[in-house]
Amino acid sequence: MxxxxxxxxxxxxxxxxxxxxxxxxxxLTPAIADTPVGTLCLTVCPACIRHHxxxxxxxxxxxxxxxxxxxxxxxxxxxxxxxxxAERGGR
Length: 91
Hints:
alpha+beta
């Protein structure tokens, strides 16, 4: 599955009821964030995208979100790590 998967695919990612950056409840969309713990999906509003407002997540929340994004993509954490390494040129 790794060969055909891209980490920025949000097709199967749910949209939460509020923005992860500011808490807004309008015009929400799924987005991808690359974090030290992995690539994760989160729900954001246009203003937070435009102004690069970071999501409010603790480390455990970020880990949970990265694992959840793996599930949305149909991959496991090892496959995510391999994809991230490939995107960085094997680094």
